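Board notes (copied after class):
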Amino acid sequence: MQNRLKIERAIKNLTQDELAKLIGVSRQTINSIEKGRYVPSTILALKISKIFEKSVNEIFELEDSD
C-alpha cells in the first residue's frame, strides 16, 4: 500500500509527533506508516483522513501487488 501521509503532513505543517498526538498513537506508528512498514487499521485510516479533510482513498492507495 502506498500513502501520501508525509506529503499531507508537510502541507499542514505537522510533525510526526504532532500528528501522532492528534490521533492517539505513537510517533513511531506514524513513521512506520509513512515508510510502508505498517498498514493502519480502518479506524486509524479514518482518523488520519479526518485530520487532513480528505478521503481515505486520497491518502492511501492499493498497489497492484496488494
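Comment from the instructor: Residues 4 and 59 are 5 Å apart (CA to CA). The helical segments are 5-12, 16-23, 27-34, 42-52, 56-59.
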